[in-house]
Amino acid sequence: MELRQRALQVLCLSDPEQKAAATLDLQAQAAMLSIAEQAPAAPPDAAALPGHP
Asked: What does the pLDDT look like over 16-51, one tens digit per residue?
């Protein structure tokens, strides 16, 4: 999986404990994930991301 896409998936998690665990897991795997040359598109409803007014 691509690192930025996985980071976006983690950002979209609404449960704080799940998000924290997924962030730690992502950090542990970061060296093994690819980084795309182009950033992924923003989610269709970026305003609905948890923690954003």
From this structure: 999 999 999 999 998 888 887 777 677 777 777 777
Token pair of 37 as six digits: 């040359």
* Structure tokens that stand for 26 in this block: 């992502």
Phi, psi of 51 (to 5 degrees): 85, 0
Quick one: 33 exposed, middle or buried, by C-beta within 10 A (0-12, 13-18, 19+)?
Answer: middle
Number of domains in the chain: 1
Contact 14, 46 (CB under 8 A): no
- Residue reference for tokens 């992924």: 40
pTM, 2 dp: 0.69
Domain region containing 7: 3-36
Q: Is 19 helix (H, G, I), strand (E, B) or coil?
A: helix
